Amino acid sequence: MNETAAASASAAEDGEPDRGAADSAGPADATDPDPVVVGEGVRKSYGEVVALDGVEIRVEPGEVFGLIGPNGAGKTTLVRALTGTTEAEGDLRVFGVPPREVDPQRIGLLPQSFDPPERLTAVELVDYYGGLYDAARDTDPVLRDVGMADDADAWYETLSGGQQRRTCVATAIVNDPDLLFLDEPTTGIDPAGRRSIHRLIERLAGDGTTVFLTSHAMDEVERLADRVALLRDGAVVAVGAPDELIAEHGGEPSLAVALDGPADEAAVEAVQEALSDGAAEEDAPGVESTPEGLRIGGVRPEEIGDAVDALDAAGVAFESLAWSEPSLEDVYLRLTGEEYSPRSEAGSGSGTFDETAPDGGDR
Ligand SMILES: Nc1ncnc2c1ncn2[C@@H]1O[C@H](COP(=O)(O)OP(=O)(O)OP(=O)(O)O)[C@@H](O)[C@H]1O
């Protein structure tokens, strides 16, 4: 039995859920003034291990709320506490009531690990989970939503990892939940599958579903989340819209210069000196050695040509250049204290260049 079934079962074990109280919290639509999720001073320990250390969190109706943080930060524990699959201290409210009193019909949960109850096909599995609720959507359109219509009759255990994950997402949305918890929904899913899950999340959010998303894929969270909370050592250390967090904590745009290894001190100094030529010291871009070469900070796109001139003047022959804007990944790396790691692949807001087009061509 997985946590979805466990959540329903735990509600049943505790007696009939307090539907009156849940209903009085009102439907989860954009006009609902009450937060969907509130956590104040949430604590949870496993023996000596403090998994949650005073979490403060608030999720508004219709939001896609992203929860990020390093391995072991407490994300899954928080999801479990909010879905009533584990007990935690503090004040937790979902639709205005303690998690175990929420009408299970209103909640969808894709747990991090999923253990189907027995040998079933994808369609049988979604039927099974649909049967746990008073009202469920038809299975076929749910499987279509997650791109599994063509493999509906395949045994779950014979599906690829990505197909299995998409089937799991189907079990989490079969009851058309008002609040959907997705704990790392795209882990192991190929790029096309990820896109289909992203579109599905966008569509669900557009229809008013509140989505609580945990992920290690920063691009995914940056794209999907209205607001993001960064959890570190069991506490929220930053929360805000991705743009706000990037502006506050992401740092500056930079130019990654690929060499045949880390730049030595002399090369860093030479480039720094060439860049500083004529500029006030505080205005000169910062240069630092990286495992791949060196990084010049604070370079705007129109300044890439100047940076290339400085590299030439310093006698630094580079293999390629990659300019990038700060992203949520930079926020994550800075706030978690993990080592700065320049992104090498081109993505949104970034571009790669080679030496034959030092000004970046027609970007
Ligand atoms: N059932 C458990 N028994 C003992 N310790 C646990 C249990 N569940 C979680 N922990 C511990 O609590 C801490 C938080 O774990 P949790 O799984 O919530 O982190 P996470 O942020 O979801 O990590 P990941 O990104 O790796 O999934 C970790 O130190 C973990 O080892």
From TrEMBL:
Q: Where is the signal peptide?
A: none
Keyword hit for Metal-binding: no
Q: Which Gene3D superfamilies match?
A: P-loop containing nucleotide triphosphate hydrolases
Keywords of this entry: ATP-binding, Nucleotide-binding, Transport
Ranges for region Disordered: 1-40, 276-298, 340-363
Report the residue ranges that make up the ABC transporter domain in this protein.
37-258
Stored InterPro entries: AAA+_ATPase (IPR003593), ABC_transporter-like_ATP-bd (IPR003439), ABC_transporter_ATP-binding (IPR050763), P-loop_NTPase (IPR027417)
Q: Give a yes or no for keyword Ligase in this entry.
A: no
The family note in this entry says: Belongs to the ABC transporter superfamily.
Protein name in the entry: ABC transporter
